[in-house]
Amino acid sequence: MKKFAFYFTAVCMAALLFACSGPQVTRVDPETEIDFSGYWNDTDSQQVSKEMIDESLNMSWVDNYQKETGRKPRVIVGQVLNKTEEHITTETFVKDLEKALIDSGKVVFVASSEQRGEIRDERADQAQNARPDTVKKQGQETGADFMLKGQINTIMDGKKGAELKYYQVELELINIETNEKTWMGQKKIKKVIANKKYKV
Q1: N or C: more exposed end of the chain, with fewer CB within 10 A?
Q2: Of 148, 144, 166, 169, which Cα lies nearest the Cα of 46?
Q3: What is the pTM for the complete model shown?
């Protein structure tokens, strides 16, 4: 019985110690800039997407297209390739690009190919199962005029106690009908990650 009590007490103490040594979570404002490792993060994604879209939409191609056609250009975001050695979730960056385009109010934004496929399946399902007065017609989609594509590259350098990370984001806007490149942009980010034990 004494042995059981000893083991029971030991288990309880271990559980208590584990509970006390658990992670401490602090909620912060999503807009707060936090950079623990120097890797590509949410701040980089948001800042780069906004700055590059602002630059693109302030160029002459938007006004020229509206003068020629009498309407806003319709844009879709294609692939953004990760050519770095890091694991970068480019889907998040693409969503930041999409948001910046929509928020600008200067273009009409068209759904991605994956989203279009899902919506087409929904229309096909409606044609079979929905009331005729609520069925959405096929063949009424808005075609995009331009596709935004890009890539993220990085160059690494370092010395004892410090590391340099240099990111270069490249975006291109391509006329879907003519394959002409309407706009090209670059955004560069340079980070120095230093160990406090050493001086850079």
Answers
A1: N
A2: 169
A3: 0.75
